[in-house]
Amino acid sequence: xxxxxxxxxxxxxxxxxxxxxxxxxxxxxxxxxxxxxxxxxxxxxxxxxxxxxxxxxxxxxxxxxxxxxxxxxxxxxxxxxxxxxxxxxxxxxxxxxxxxxxxxxxxxxxxxx
Length: 113
Description:
Elements: E1 4-7, E2 10-13, E3 18-24, E4 34-39, E5 46-51, E6 58-60, E7 68-73, E8 78-83, E9 92-98, E10 102-103, E11 107-112
């Protein structure tokens, strides 16, 4: 069983930055792909960024390309999401996902205009 705990969310002004972290328990993290999703109020959950097992392949939603950066530290069982140039439309609950199977409880990001 894998448990994921996100942190780093909060309130930030438009143009600001936040760094989300997701710490994973269990031994499969370093052998698993990871991803960040988000869900805004009244919207469906959407994929924000995906990272391969070794961290060499990264994919992003068009809406965040050039502003968000996903990374991972397999030695610390942690995946990160650096979010820069934040916009009000980035406001959502952000969820960590591992192996397309395990989910964290989410962390709220609110971007004020």
